[in-house]
From TrEMBL:
Residues 34-143 form the Histidine kinase/HSP90-like ATPase domain. The keyword ATP-binding does not apply. Keywords: Kinase, Serine/threonine-protein kinase, Transferase. PANTHER family: ANTI-SIGMA-F FACTOR RSBW, ANTI-SIGMA-F FACTOR RSBW-RELATED. It comes from Streptomyces plumbiresistens. It comes from the Bacteria. This is ATPase. The lineage of its organism: Bacteria, Bacillati, Actinomycetota, Actinomycetes, Kitasatosporales.
Length: 148
């Protein structure tokens, strides 16, 4: 699974496989709620206001990673969110060994493609993005989004 690093502000929300090996449902909305909770807990602990723009960026990254795992990765197998220093780390695991790709905005016939913006958004809003192969197959994508 994704390696975990905790800080004094660490809040973790996980969605993992049940005893039969079936993944629990993790929707993008679940991921967004977990990010809001983690960031809110950190702001309370620091006695500082939460940066609304930074929180919006983290919510968008969580949504894109979970949506991509559902649409292209065979489903979410694990999800973690925690606070690391001045950022929020979101890790999403799925069943696919395929690396994320950026498709050209038009197909070979010159027609505009629908979608295809998720991975570029994740890369642009995150200060660190890592893709790790998992021992049992699949991958874990971890993105750290700055909170300030």
């Amino acid at each position: 699974m994704c390696e975990e690093h905790r800080t004094e502000y660490a809040f973790q929300s996980s969605f993992v496989a049940d005893r039969r090996g079936q993944p629990r449902t993790c929707k993008p909305a679940d991921a967004r709620r977990a990010v809001v909770q983690a960031v809110t807990e950190r702001c309370r602990a620091d006695h500082t206001p939460c940066d609304a723009n930074a929180l919006s960026d983290a919510l968008l990254v969580a949504s894109e990673l979970t949506t991509n795992a559902i649409l292209h990765g065979g489903g979410i197998t694990d999800f973690h969110v925690d606070i690391v220093g001045p950022g929020v780390r979101v890790s999403v695991s799925d069943r696919s060994d395929e690396l994320p790709v950026v498709d050209p905005p038009v197909d070979r016939y010159g027609r505009r493609r629908v979608g295809g913006h998720g991975w570029p958004i994740v890369c642009r809003l995150s200060r660190d993005v890592r893709v790790t192969d998992l021992p049992a197959g699949g991958k874990c994508i971890t993105a750290v989004v700055p909170l300030a």
